[in-house]
Design brief:
Blueprint: H1 62-86, H2 92-113, H3 129-139, H4 150-166, H5 178-186, H6 189-199, H7 211-231, H8 245-251, H9 256-262, E1 266-269, H10 271-283, E2 288-292, H11 298-312, E3 318-322, H12 335-347, H13 356-375, E4 378-381, H14 395-398, H15 400-407, E5 411-415, H16 416-423, H17 435-438, H18 441-444, E6 451-456, H19 469-479, E7 490-495
Parallel strand pairs: 1-7, 2-3, 2-5, 3-4, 5-6
Antiparallel strand pairs: 6-7
Length: 506
C-alpha cells in the first residue's frame, strides 16, 4: 500500500462493485396475480364452496329468481293441492290434522317471503334430522333464505315443507306434488308410446351382421338411448309448472331426427367415452350400474328404458336405482312414484285415446320391468343422505356407508340438474373447469367410482366444456342470455375416478 492510497477505516469493508447482467434472451416478466379460487380443500365448507357460491341476493343469477319468485309459486301450488285434498275428506280428525299441516305451510310461506333466519328442523323421527341440524349449527347460524348458499337454502325449503306433514298424525307421508307428477306423465302419451312400441319385445340385432357390424349397431343404439335418457330430463315440474300439453310433447320428442339435431347442443360431450366404459363392463362378464334418479314420470320412464337396454345387451347384470325418501324438489322420484309407474304401465288406464296395440306394448314393457325387480336385476333404494343440504363432496364425512356402497358400483350415473349441482358444489367455477376437478373428492378420493353426469342445463353452474369452455360460455351469454336455464343445452360428462382402490375415511 502506497502512502497516497486511502487508508481503510478499521472494521469496515469496501462494498464490491455492482455487476450489470443483460437478460435480453430470457423470457419477459409476467404480470402474476395471486389466485383466490378455487379454495384449497381445507378451506371448503358448505358456506364456502371451492368457487364463489350462488346466493339468493345475487340479483343477476337464477338463484335470485328461484328464491324470490319460483319457490313461493311452487309452495303456493302445494298449498292449493293440499286444500283440494282437505275438501275431499269426511273424518273430522283427519280434516283437523290436515288443516294444521296447511297452517304450517303458511308459516313456511311467511318465512320464505319474509326472508326469515334458518331455524333447526323439528325432530320428526326422520333419519336426516341430525345431519340437517348439525349443518345449520356449524355453518348457517344467523343465515337467512337469501344469504345462505342457494343450494342449501332451496333444499332447506323442501325439508321444511316435508316437516309440515311429517309431524302430523295422519299425513306424514303426504306428497303435495304427487298429483302433478301423475298428471304430467298422463299428458306424455306420444313420447311414452314412441318408446314402448319399439321396446315392448326384447330387442334383437340382425344375425346377418358381422360381429363388428353387431357391435356398431349396438353402439348406435346405446348413444341414441343415452340421449333419450338425457333429454328426458327436460320434463322438470319445478321449472315447467304451467306448461301446455303441446309444449310437453315438443320437449319429449324422442325420434331419431330430433336426437341428431339435439346432439350439437351437448356442450360437454363424453358420449363415446361412456360407450367405451360400459362396453368394458360386458367384457368383464357384466357389471353393476347405479342411477341416482332425478324426476319421476316421463324421465323415470326413459331411465327405465335405458336400464332395460343395459340388462338385455349384457352391458350390465344389475341396475340399482336411488330415489328420495319423501317429496323433494317437486318432481324427484320417491318409492311411491316408482311403484306407481310400473303398476300403471301394467294395470292402469291412463291413456283413453291409445290403441289396443299401444296399451299392450306398455303392459308388456312394464311386466318385464317388474320381473327384473323380482329377479334382483333391478333394485330400488332410498338413502336419507339424498334429502339433506349437503353436497356430494361431503359423502365421505356425512354418509360413509353410502359412499362405500357406491364405490362397489362399476358406473354411477347421476341424472339431472340438482344432482349435477350437488356434484359440483353449485358454485361459480369457470366453464373450462374439468369435470374431475369440479366434483373434487368424488373423482380424486381413493375408491371413487366411475361417474357420469347426464344433465340438461337449467341453472347457473356450468363446467366441463373443455379448454375453450370460457369462450363458449361468453359467446352464449351474448347470443342467448338465458341459455343456462332454458334446458336447450346439456352435458354428458364422465369421471374415471379411482375404482378398485380401498375407500379411506379420515
Amino acid at each position: 500500500m502506497t502512502p497516497t492510497d486511502p487508508q481503510p477505516t478499521q472494521g469496515t469493508v469496501n462494498p464490491p462493485s455492482k455487476v450489470t447482467l443483460h437478460l435480453g434472451h430470457l423470457p419477459s416478466k409476467k404480470d402474476i396475480k395471486s389466485s383466490t379460487w378455487p379454495r384449497t380443500p381445507t378451506r371448503v365448507d358448505p358456506n364456502n364452496p371451492p368457487w364463489p357460491a350462488y346466493r339468493g341476493y345475487h340479483e343477476y343469477s337464477f338463484a335470485h329468481a328461484t328464491m324470490q319468485s319460483r319457490l313461493p309459486t311452487i309452495l303456493g301450488k302445494a298449498i292449493e293441492d293440499t286444500i283440494r285434498t282437505l275438501n275431499g275428506q269426511s273424518s273430522e280428525e283427519r280434516i283437523v290434522d290436515l288443516a294444521e299441516c296447511i297452517n304450517r305451510m303458511w308459516d313456511l310461506m311467511n318465512d320464505l317471503s319474509g326472508n326469515a333466519k334458518l331455524r333447526p328442523i323439528i325432530d320428526d323421527s326422520e333419519a336426516d334430522v341430525a345431519l340437517w341440524n348439525k349443518e345449520i349449527a356449524k355453518y348457517f347460524q344467523g343465515k337467512d333464505f337469501m344469504n345462505a348458499p342457494w343450494l342449501f337454502a332451496e333444499a332447506y325449503k323442501y325439508r321444511r315443507l316435508h316437516e309440515c306433514f311429517s309431524i302430523s298424525k295422519f299425513w306424514s307421508d303426504y306428497d303435495v306434488f304427487y298429483r302433478q307428477k301423475c298428471d304430467t306423465f298422463s299428458r306424455s302419451s306420444d313420447a311414452v308410446f314412441e318408446l314402448s312400441m319399439r321396446f315392448a319385445e326384447p330387442f334383437k340385432i340382425s344375425d346377418e351382421l358381422s360381429p363388428e357390424g353387431k357391435l356398431e349397431a349396438e353402439r348406435h343404439m346405446f348413444l341414441e338411448l343415452t340421449q333419450v335418457c338425457l333429454w328426458g330430463n327436460s320434463t322438470d315440474l319445478s321449472l315447467l309448472i304451467n306448461m301446455t300439453e303441446e309444449q310437453i310433447k315438443a320437449l319429449q320428442s324422442t325420434g331419431g331426427d330430433h336426437l341428431a339435431a339435439t346432439e350439437k347442443n351437448i356442450l360437454g360431450n363424453d358420449l363415446n367415452r361412456l360407450w367405451e366404459t360400459v362396453k368394458t363392463l360386458r367384457e368383464k362378464t357384466g357389471g353393476r350400474v347405479d342411477f341416482v334418479l332425478d324426476n319421476a314420470g316421463f324421465e323415470l320412464y326413459c331411465d327405465c328404458v335405458y336400464a332395460d337396454f343395459l340388462i338385455q345387451s349384457g352391458l350390465a347384470n344389475q341396475v340399482r336405482f336411488h330415489g328420495k325418501r319423501f317429496a323433494w324438489f317437486v318432481s324427484d322420484v320417491t318409492k311411491k312414484d316408482w311403484e306407481w309407474l310400473l303398476n300403471t304401465m301394467v294395470y292402469g288406464q291412463l291413456f283413453p285415446k291409445a290403441t289396443d296395440t299401444e296399451i299392450e306394448s306398455l303392459r308388456r314393457l312394464g311386466a318385464r320391468w317388474k320381473q327384473y325387480e323380482k329377479e334382483g336385476k333391478w333394485v330400488y333404494e332410498q338413502h336419507p343422505f339424498w334429502c339433506t343440504g349437503y353436497t356430494y363432496w361431503d359423502l365421505h364425512s356425512e354418509a360413509p356407508d353410502l359412499l362405500l356402497h357406491l364405490s362397489r358400483s362399476d358406473l354411477v350415473i347421476f341424472k339431472g340438474d340438482l344432482n349435477h349441482r350437488k356434484l359440483t358444489y353449485d358454485c361459480a367455477a369457470p366453464a373450462s373447469t374439468p369435470f374431475e376437478v369440479a366434483i373434487g373428492p368424488m373423482a380424486s378420493a381413493a375408491g371413487a367410482p366411475k361417474i357420469a353426469s347426464l344433465r340438461t342445463i337449467k341453472s347457473d353452474v356450468v363446467v366441463g366444456l373443455g379448454t375453450q369452455g370460457d369462450e363458449i360460455a361468453e359467446k352464449l351469454d351474448e347470443a342467448e342470455p338465458g341459455w343456462k336455464i332454458s334446458g336447450k343445452y346439456a352435458v354428458v360428462l364422465l369421471s374415471e375416478g379411482r375404482p378398485g382402490e380401498k375407500v379411506r375415511f379420515a
